[in-house]
Amino acid sequence: MERKNVWKEYTKKELKELERLNKDYRGFLDAGKTERECALESVKMAEKAGYRNLKEIISSGGSLQAGDKVYAVNMKKSVVLFQIGRQPLEKGMAILGAHIDSPRMDIKQNPLYEDTELAYLDTHYYGGIKKYQWVTLPLAIHGVFVKKNGEVTEVCIGEDEKDPVFCVTDLLIHLAHERMEKKADKVIEGEELDILFGSQPLKGAEKDAVMANVLQILKDRYEVEEEDFLSAELEVVPAGRARESGIDASMIMAYGQDDRVCAYTSLAAMLEVEDTEYTTCCLLVDKEEIGSVGATGMQSNFFENMVAELLECLGQYSELALRRCLMNSKMLSSDVSAAYDPTYAAAYEKKNAAYFGRGMVFNKFTGSRGKSGSNDANAEFMAQIRGILEHAGVAYQTAELGKVDIGGGGTIAYIMALYGMDVIDCGVAVLNMHAPWEITSKADVYEVKKGYVVFLEKIFG
Question: Which end of the chain has fewer CB atoms < 10 Å from its terminal CB, N or C?
């Protein structure tokens, strides 16, 4: 079943809309390189579109009704948005759910040290990465220091052209013969991913003079002490802006597109849809790259708690109504899929691979090998989605994540499926997935946003 390349079908009007959407998307990527920044940017967009803070409504004893738009934030790292429909909430919601965390390196709690008059920051990588890809790149540091008195100091170093950047050093090829014989996962060890942080000694300092100079700079510029690293969250990401890619500028190359490409298109669709019969929801969560754990991951009770609060504000709450709402909901687990790369053709099964320019990608199941750890969506749900997308003229394709005994991966779909709702994975095809710089097709970004709008508006008929 051959799927068409949608670039061949676009009108001038559609191309103009496509470029506008992708320009805004690149801006979103630049503004949100961490889950904290992404959550903050999402809230800004939501408030501009008329969404109100649900927790403020709850604290003031307020109520909600059909047509109201609300959002809630969890620990500054996860966001959920609801637009209240006319139908009772227990009849279910149309949900788009994506994650906003991406593979990176995190600064350890006791990171700073000096060796032979060079200062370093020790890191712990986060999520699945090829460690050798992170050496000699210009890197930026984003995050916060939180002092004992609760004062928060935000940090972003390496993104402005006037800023310094950082890197993980690598051994020159002339001395690397033995190292080059190691397996790829051992060429660079995790404990070698230390950030070169400084080299100038502080005048008058006798011991660890470079480290002393670094600490002086941190105190002067950010009013933080070495002890403040204990309560800091500092993330190391590739420095630089999202860029158009290819001589035809048909693609986007940027850090963190897994899964912010689906987060952005989900959010854009949510903010576009108006006057819905059934309640719509956009859920942007943290920690998917490490198993959706913790208080800000999908396995927490944040989403369920916010739905309960929503029911209470609507005067509809009961435990049974909550369970019915979750069971009757329908969801697209908005997550990326691996784009077919002819350079590495042996890893793919071509009939069941995702391709650039052919629209949104559905993965009926994920998991690995024998579908282990998978959500396997019902055929009836897929048929329903096919119908509404084809009627709306949205391009889509289906895929698996590589050959049966090679590929595999997880999303938040299996967690939401525990409620008994229909869930299927659906998103954008990505090249270089989990690399510092990932690539997507502008056409696929456009088609996915269109498809998400159709899903929110039409999935309940």
Answer: N
Distance between CA atoms of 188 and 135, rounded to whole angstroms?
A: 9
Cβ partners under 8 Å of residue 390, min gap 6 = none
* Segment 300-314, tens digit of pLDDT: 999 999 999 999 999
Residue from 150, 146, 125 nearest 135 by CA: 125
According to DSSP, the residues that pair with 459 across neighbouring strands are: none
- Position 1 scores a pLDDT of 67
Q: What is the DSSP letter of 158?
A: S
Please say whether the dihedral angle defined by the alpha carbons of residues 402, 403, 406 and 409, taken in this order, is positive or negative: positive
Q: Tokens 């409620």: give the residue.
A: 419
Tokens of 355: 């391709």
pLDDT in tens, 42-89: 999 999 999 999 999 999 999 999 999 999 999 999 999 999 999 999
What are the residues facing 306 on neighbouring strands? Answer: none
Q: What is the pLDDT of residue 367?
A: 66
What pLDDT does residue 160 have?
A: 95
Taking the chain (461 residues) in runs of 10, the rounded mean pLDDT of each run is 89 97 98 97 98 96 95 98 97 97 97 97 96 97 96 96 96 94 94 97 92 96 95 98 98 96 98 96 95 93 97 96 97 94 93 95 79 80 95 94 77 91 95 97 98 97 82
Q: Are 382 and 364 in contact (CB under 8 A)?
A: yes
Cα-based distances in Å from 334 to 95, 284, 348: 10, 10, 22
pLDDT at 267: 98
d(CA 242, CA 254): 4
Determine contact, residues 443/250, Cβ cutoff 8 Å: yes
* CA angle (198, 203, 208) in 5-degree steps: 50
What CA–CA distances, in Å, run from 374 to 30, 332, 366?
32, 15, 5
Helix (H, G, I), strand (E, B) or coil at 110: strand
Q: Do 392 and 317 contact (CB within 8 A), yes or no?
A: no
Q: What is the DSSP-derived secondary structure letter of residue 202?
A: P
pTM: 0.96
Element (H, E) at 43: helix 35-48
Q: Distance (Å, rounded) from C-alpha 389 to C-alpha 397?
A: 11
